[in-house]
Design brief:
The chain is α/β, with parallel strands linked by helices. The protein folds into two domains: 162 residues, Alpha/beta knot (3-Layer(aba) Sandwich); 66 residues, tRNA(m1g37)methyltransferase, domain 2 (Trp Operon Repressor, Chain A, Orthogonal Bundle). 42% of the residues lie in helices and 16% in strands. It holds the Pfam family tRNA_m1G_MT.
Length: 252
């Protein structure tokens, strides 16, 4: 996959993309990340990329011209990208499903906004997708771009050591992931659940599924409404509800 990031601050990406899994993915040639400075496409001597908004108002607006010029430059070298993504508050919420969708593309362009916003002609005529990583305000689109690249790249085949790692983690099936433990068996009086030491694979599978459902029910019940639950999942949840009812009865 090729990811082109249009940004005013390419230096911000040095740390996150030069370490850990993303670094190894780049070294293996599984993903190529190009940091493109929008100022390089400004036509004035001061390399400014913003201007006052028509109609008045506070703040500055990122101009259309440098972004259109940058996209022309990308197309002449690599052809049309699969998606051109603007990171902005108005975009659709970013989640694991969107990450998996983008991971199927061969070429992505991410546009990092700044100031009070971007000239609307960019969104109307260049952008294919608008994405938001949450309902809060950041200083620019660089941090959201890092989040999107990290989430997408780890789903590319070969990036993670084991494909099962991506398939079993949180949100992969609409639920939160089950808890994990490692050695020692006991630490400061806290023990690993006995079922995980049993070697009984079916019991371990059922325990993990139950824990996944319990965690989701407790922390993110909204996810259960959208998850694709199996008949086994429904039976587990039914038994959990019966246990809760019994506890309530005892308390009363």
């Amino acid at each position: 996959m090729v990811v082109d990031i249009l940004t005013l601050f390419p230096e911000m990406f040095a740390g996150p993309f030069d370490a850990s899994i993303i670094k190894r993915a780049r070294e293996k040639g599984l993903v190529k990340i190009n940091l493109i400075n929008i100022r390089d496409f400004s036509r004035n001597k001061h390399r400014t990329v913003d201007d006052t908004p028509y109609g008045g108002g506070a703040g500055m607006v990122m101009a259309a011209e440098p972004l259109f010029e940058a996209m022309d430059w990308i197309r002449t070298r690599q052809g049309d990208p699969g998606r051109v993504i603007l990171l902005c508050p108005a975009g659709r919420p970013f989640n694991q499903e969107v990450a998996a969708e983008l991971a199927r593309e061969e070429h992505l362009v991410l546009i990092c906004g700044h100031y009070e916003g971007i000239d609307e002609r960019v969104a109307e005529h260049l952008v294919t997708d608008e994405i938001s990583i949450g309902d809060y305000v950041l200083t620019g689109g660089e941090l959201p771009a890092m989040v999107v690249v990290d989430a997408v790249c780890r789903l590319i085949p070969g990036v993670l050591g084991e494909r099962a790692s991506a398939q079993e983690e949180s949100f992969s099936d609409g639920l939160l992931e089950y808890p994990h433990y490692t050695r020692p068996r006991e630490y400061r009086g806290y023990r690993v659940p006995e079922v995980l030491l049993s070697g009984h694979h079916e019991k371990i599978r059922l325990w993990r599924r139950r824990q996944s459902l319990l965690r989701t029910l407790a922390s993110r019940p909204d996810l259960l409404a959208r998850a694709s639950l199996t008949e086994e999942d429904r039976k587990i949840l039914a038994s959990v509800l019966e246990e809760i009812k019994s506890l309530i009865h005892l308390i009363q």
